[in-house]
Amino acid sequence: MGYSNQRFDVNLSILFTELPLLERPAAAAATGFTAVELWWPWIETPTPEQAELDALKKALDDAGTQLVGLNFYAGALPGPDRGALSIPGEESDRFRANIEVAADFAASVGCKALNALYGNRVEGTDPQVQDALALENLVLAARAADRVGAILLVETLNKPESPLYPLVSAPGAIEVIDKVNAATGLGNAKFLLDIYHLSMNGENVAEVIEAYAAKTGHVQIADNPGRGAPGTGSLPLEELLDQLSKAGYDGWVGLEYKAADAAASFEWLPAEARAAR
Q1: Active centre residues (catalytic)
Q2: Which of 240, 147, 235 has the alpha carbon at shortest distance from 193?
Q3: What is the pTM of this model?
Q4: What tens digit of pLDDT does each residue of 110-147 get?
Q5: Rounded to an integer, what distance in angstroms lies between the CA atom of residue 172 and that of residue 154?
Q6: Peptide bond into 225 cis (omega under 30)
């Protein structure tokens, strides 16, 4: 088994960021990868001009790269924000304005997974009010994803790095996912299992995999400590991915780690294991 048994994609919002957005798909392709994922690339707007969407589609197509994961609008990410959908007022409105835009773009490039970051707790706002708004917005997002044949992902982050984010355990995210599926009846809300975030929270990753592999729609990895490439920390990533495979997960594994030199950081993965399959 091992790494050569997985389907990897490169997160172009954390790797190759020294390049302009439209040059990153080709850079990933040059290192042997044919699948990529992105955070919402237009931090300042949920509704970019069609020409910008078209240019990104062209860059992906020209590079021969398949977009396999896309975040909905999430505020300033990277930055202080961790999503918009549970934040009353303008941010919730921006998230809603983005839902169909993101879903239509995903459809145009054949992307089958849309990630909805929950958003931080807001001081002075009742958490129950935020959670009710979140459920409302996640239901809208799940329906839009379903319209384009995609799944909706809900992600656990980690408390040390995202102290105001409420979903900082696997059960916390699963509870939200179950509520969304109960509300829509679609069953397309799934868990984004990020091994780095889970380990930063001190969760037993093997136990999380055992419990929730069936509800997992996407996986992301980075080593811990440091959020670097596999082998730079102490996580048994190869074993954990093997365990996921044995539990029936055959989806994508996003490389969402930090590296000063992205191309050089892929040495842990044989060149022949990089292309999508």
Answers
A1: 155, 256
A2: 240
A3: 0.98
A4: 999 999 999 999 999 999 999 999 999 999 999 999 99
A5: 10
A6: yes
